[in-house]
Design goal:
alpha/beta, seven-stranded mixed sheet, 15 helices, 12 strands, 36% helix, pyridoxal phosphate binding, PyrdxlP-dep_Trfase_major
Length: 446
């Protein structure tokens, strides 16, 4: 198909159906987000889609299928001669105008040529893998990845697609380089900030090692939107679970693939496209809601990060074993400082290692039911604090030995710090629960 994803197009008139021009509009970018080092500035410079009747908010294009003015137009659309770059749409499983607008915002935020949004984060990851890696191909992936991603790579893809994965410690560049097989390894996959251990990947160095062997780098940036821009640090493809921080409401499941226009177009190809043919389509109404939330993502991320750093600092002072990349004793603190976009912070998640699952459950129970500090629930990026014991929840797909290699303690409590209420109000609630815990011999000042 023709290159169509990353381009701007004006509303077509009826006569455009029979326009036999050479399609030069397809070569015009909607914006060049790579020119902006700050993702908030890139979002502000992206094309603003107005409503059908001049509304400041875009209209929702809820149609599953689209009409044409001339019979010949449909044939030209199916050959790729006419496409969304000039406001020609076929079917919403392929391209939908509202979803395409959200995709433009995601591309601007991540500094990539193009993006397209999907029904979930896992569908984005799965589609990228199936587009980049054929049967018999090989992937090198971090040991520290979300449990669902680990299951996809270690169980589903080998069984269903004959795609194998070698899991490595991405902190060890020599191990990564040895695992990459030139000519066979197609993808190096890792998370910018790992789920749930909050280990930080050295994105520029990992990209250097992979690109030296002709391997495509795919980075899951779900934990660090706005904070880190992997594509600006050398990554080829960035995937997101939009469900988390970007949505912010714990009410929407969604994902995104951000990368070169050539890749995104290939994923939407009528004959070979993983997104087109597998069909993880985002609903236009969902895309509209998400488009309305992205403009205040920067503000939300700054508050998530500010509170996470404050609570991590205070918890550490109380004697708890806290993991947070904003703390100076975090092993990748200086690395993260060298990669982050200025003024956003160090992430909205922190971990407390309670060492055993029983102690982790005690902590979460008291924080929810005595302190009203947060909720025991998976996911992250909500305005309330969410807590889970990763080993028995979101990382439970890993075997015990895999969990140990990933550095996941049985008592690791992952907290996504919310921003509801005042900071001191929430700290008071946290202290209330901690006081009760300390009565039972839990960590306190030494």
């Amino acid at each position: 198909m023709a290159d169509i994803v990353a381009f701007s197009g004006k509303k077509r008139s009826h006569s455009d159906d029979m326009d036999n021009g050479n399609g030069d509009a397809k070569k015009t970018m909607l914006s060049n987000p790579i020119l902006h080092s700050d993702p908030a500035a890139a979002l502000a410079s992206a094309r603003h889609e107005f409503g059908e009747h001049g509304g400041v908010n875009m209209s929702i294009e809820a149609s599953a299928t689209f009409t044409v003015m001339e019979p010949e137009t449909m044939r030209r659309m199916f050959t790729g001669e006419l496409g969304p770059d000039r406001d020609f749409f076929i079917y919403s499983r392929h391209f939908n105008p509202t979803v395409l607008n959200l995709s433009r915002l995601m591309a601007a935020m991540e500094g990539t040529e193009a993006a397209y949004c999907t029904a979930s984060g896992m569908s984005a990851i799965s589609a990228v893998m199936l587009q980049l890696v054929s049967s018999g191909g090989h992937v090198v992936a971090s040991r520290r990845v979300y449990g669902g991603t680990h299951a996809l790579l270690s169980h589903f893809l080998p069984r269903a697609c004959n795609i194998t994965t070698t899991f490595v410690d991405v902190m060890d560049l020599e191990m990564v380089e040895e695992a990459l097989v030139e000519g066979k390894t197609k993808v190096l996959y890792f998370e910018s900030i790992a789920n749930p251990t909050l280990a930080v990947a050295n994105i520029p160095e990992l990209c250097r090692v992979a690109h030296k062997k002709g391997v495509t780098v795919v980075v899951d940036n779900t934990f660090a939107p706005m904070i880190i821009s992997p594509a600006r640090l050398g990554a080829d493809v960035v995937v997101h679970s939009i469900t988390k921080f970007i949505s912010g409401g714990a009410d929407i499941i969604a994902g995104a693939v951000c990368g070169p226009a050539s890749l995104v177009n290939s994923m939407m190809d009528l004959h070979q496209g993983a997104l087109m043919l597998l069909g993880p389509t985002m609903n236009a109404k969902v895309a509209f809601e998400l488009s309305e939330r992205i403009p205040h993502l920067a503000i939300r991320m700054k508050e998530h990060c500010h509170r996470a750093l404050t609570f991590a600092t205070r918890l550490k002072a109380l004697g708890f074993k806290v993991i947070y990349p904003g703390l100076e004793d975090h092993p990748q603190h200086e690395l993260l400082k060298s990669m982050i976009n200025k003024d956003y912070g160090f992430g909205g998640l922190l971990c407390i290692d309670m060492e055993t699952e029983e102690r982790a459950n005690w902590l979460m129970n008291h924080l929810q039911n005595y302190g009203q500090f947060g909720f025991m629930a998976v996911s992250l990026g909500y305005y309330e604090t969410l807590m889970s014991c990763s080993g028995s929840s979101t990382s439970s797909e890993l075997k015990p030995e895999e969990m140990a290699l990933a550095g996941i303690s049985p008592g690791l409590v992952r907290m996504s710090i919310g921003y509801i209420g005042t900071l001191e109000q929430k700290w008071s609630q946290l202290e209330k629960a901690l006081t009760k815990l300390q009565e039972h011999g839990f960590p306190g000042k030494n």
